[in-house]
Amino acid sequence: MSLRERISADLKQAMKDKDATRLSTLRLISAAIKDRDIALRGEGEDRQLSEAEIVAILTRMVKQRQDSARAYEEGGRLELVERENAEIDVIEDYLPRQLGEDEIAEAIEVVIAETGAASIRDMGGVINRLKARHAGQMDFGKVGPLVKARLAQGTQA
Predict the structure, then answer these.
(1) Residue range(s) defining the domain that contains residue 105
(2) Are residues 7 and 69 in the same domain?
(3) Distance of alpha carbon 157 from alpha carbon 153, whole angstroms
(4) Do 133 and 107 touch, CB atoms closer than 8 A?
(5) Closest CA to 137 of 89, 111, 101, 84
(6) Each residue of 20-49: pLDDT tens digit?
(7) CA angle, 54 then 102 then 86, to 5°
(8) What digits encode the pLDDT tens for the residues 75-105?
(9) Single residue among 41, 57, 92 that ends a domain in this structure
């Protein structure tokens, strides 16, 4: 079952279960996917979004909610923080499993070995290969500094 089909089926189930939080979040997800489909058609592309593109949309939605939750927390709006966190939980059900720190470090080592990266100038190639292999499985905002630190070690050795 594709991610799009799974979201649609879960949306119907949330309606039956009268699960308001899950239902509203799944409607937001569906709307975001449909908006992107419409934008593609406007650009002259007659295709549906790929699984990777849907994962990218979901990842962006999680990041937006994390930012909102932080802002609400700073403003003392705890009920809104709880709502954002509940939406994050629903969205994350559709994202690939996140890699742990050890798995991320191992993936970085494998890609560096494969590409023969030796200096920070090779960082872009390493990050691009990691994105191709592990889209949605790691936070590249955090991975970038790890790759940079690892490549900096290689130049000092």
Answers:
(1) 101-156
(2) yes
(3) 6
(4) yes
(5) 101
(6) 999 999 999 999 999 998 888 888 877 888
(7) 45
(8) 999 999 999 999 999 999 998 888 888 888 8
(9) 92
